[in-house]
């Protein structure tokens, strides 16, 4: 940990989970805990976006949006602490304990995520051409 982060308050995941409404909105991004309650009305994406992630880890959603450098700088004003090490490691263990099967399951999920809809689309097109199109002619 860096010297700056050692002075941050350590916050347990259970405490973060208790702050998940518009009166008190906390979220976790990259194991840092932010109190964004006062930012709800100012958030360009609307307060609903923050409230959806309130009380839990919003890292993936935050990164998926691709926030600007300015947004990342602004975040620092809402930083209140860091997630307790035990809560961080349990989350990471869940990802790493699966071992070599993770890449296999990810690769199978990636091709099945497009293969199934493609199969349904082809079946629907065939059904339309063979059954419904001749009936309307």
Concise description?
With 137 residues, this protein is of the alpha+beta class.
Total DSSP helices: 7
Fraction in helix: 55-70%
Q: In whole angstroms, how far apart are the ends? A: 72 Å
- Beta percentage is 5-15%
Structural class: alpha+beta
Radius of gyration: 22 Å
Spatial order of strands in the largest sheet: 1-5-4-3-2
Overall residue-averaged pLDDT value = 80
Q: Main sheet, how many strands, which sense, barrel?
A: 5 strands, mixed
**SSE series:** HEHEEEHHHEHH
Shape: elongated
Total beta strand runs: 5
Poorly predicted parts: 1-5, 90-107
Characterize the structure shown.
The chain is built from 7 helices and 5 strands, in the order H-E-H-E-E-E-H-H-H-E-H-H. It is of the alpha+beta class and 137 residues long. Strands 1-5-4-3-2 form a 5-stranded mixed sheet.
Short key terms for the protein model shown above:
alpha+beta; single chain; elongated; about 140 residues
Q: How would you summarize the topology of this molecule?
A:
Elements lengths: L2 H4 L2 E3 L1 H5 L2 E2 L2 E6 L2 E4 L11 H7 L5 H7 L3 H7 L3 E5 L1 H12 L4 H36 L1
Parallel strand pairs: 1-5
Antiparallel strand pairs: 2-3, 3-4, 4-5
